[in-house]
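Quick one, tokens below:
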């Protein structure tokens, strides 16, 4: 009896040893979680870019790669991602990028919970499941599961913008004369502009506009875009571009002359000009009324004091403003 047990034990040990050798010889897929980055910040959400890769050592393609991932901020689960990231070709390593959007409507409660915390910890936790082709399976194991945890910090942001200190400057007599090339138009143009820029309620007639046809006069304008972060983080704007529409018409676009960064508030100083002859009827009425429906959009970089990278920032807002 003891001899039988000894032989059985020896046989079992040999089989386990052989399985171990075989397992060492048979290649297995490899998974790598490369990074989690802030791809973009907008007025509605923060987009995270998740970079992973899977290496397929087999001479046949793998049909799928199943990702099951929880997104947590400060340990609180905010969202879950379950997706098939697709097939992986034979003998290839495939990058598997994924975008995750964090909406401010979901983040707002976290901001209230941590009102003074400028940086929040976001973690991606989960598993990547990769199938094993039948001819390379051992002990009936048909897939490999790779657990992962990746963490990084994101700024507490809830950005907004207002247009302030808007004004259109009355040109000087010499500027009007230079633009008209004749003294006879100076008086007519001056009267027209005083009515336009002075808040006159008198409608701008077609005849009045026709009288200014060919007048090569640019009107100067100055105003501020005031960006505010309503959450805790300090933000600095850089390399800002803007496109501003008034009353549905293209008004101005370009770069500001100055950006004054002040922690949670940044003032973008705009000084620009537009040709009087180019504006349409609705914009004439808007300038007269000193009240405008606007659409503002553009791009900038965001530099957060606690982070090294320059984060892409895209903004868009519609609203209404008045000026004196």
């Amino acid at each position: 009896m003891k001899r039988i047990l000894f032989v059985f034990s020896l046989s079992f040990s040999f089989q386990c040893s052989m399985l171990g050798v075989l397992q060492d010889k048979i290649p297995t897929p490899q998974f790598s979680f490369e990074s989690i980055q802030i791809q973009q910040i907008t007025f509605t959400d923060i987009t995270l870019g998740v970079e992973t890769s899977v290496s397929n050592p087999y001479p046949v393609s793998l049909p799928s790669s199943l990702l099951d991932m929880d997104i947590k901020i400060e340990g609180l689960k905010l969202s879950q991602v379950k997706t098939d990231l697709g097939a992986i070709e034979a003998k290839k390593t495939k990058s598997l990028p994924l975008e995750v959007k964090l909406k401010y409507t979901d983040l707002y409660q976290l901001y209230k919970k941590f009102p003074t915390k400028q940086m929040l910890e976001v973690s991606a936790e989960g598993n990547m499941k990769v199938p094993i082709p039948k001819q390379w399976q051992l002990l009936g194991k048909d897939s490999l599961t790779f657990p992962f945890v990746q963490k990084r910090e994101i700024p507490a942001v809830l950005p907004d913008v207002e247009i302030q200190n808007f004004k259109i400057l009355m040109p000087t007599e010499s500027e009007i004369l230079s633009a008209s090339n004749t003294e006879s138009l100076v008086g007519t143009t001056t009267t027209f502009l005083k009515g336009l820029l002075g808040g006159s309620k008198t409608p701008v007639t077609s005849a009045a506009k026709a009288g200014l046809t060919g007048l090569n006069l640019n009107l100067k304008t100055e105003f501020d875009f005031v960006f505010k972060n309503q959450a805790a983080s300090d933000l600095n704007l850089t390399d800002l571009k803007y496109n501003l529409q008034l009353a549905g018409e293209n008004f101005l676009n370009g770069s500001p002359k100055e950006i004054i960064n002040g922690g949670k508030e940044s003032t973008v100083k705009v000084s620009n000009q537009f040709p009087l002859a180019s504006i349409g009827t609705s914009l004439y009425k808007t300038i007269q009324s000193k009240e405008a429906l606007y659409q503002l959009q553009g791009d900038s970089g965001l530099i957060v004091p606690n982070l090294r990278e320059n984060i892409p920032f895209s903004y868009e807002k519609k609203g209404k403003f008045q000026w004196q």
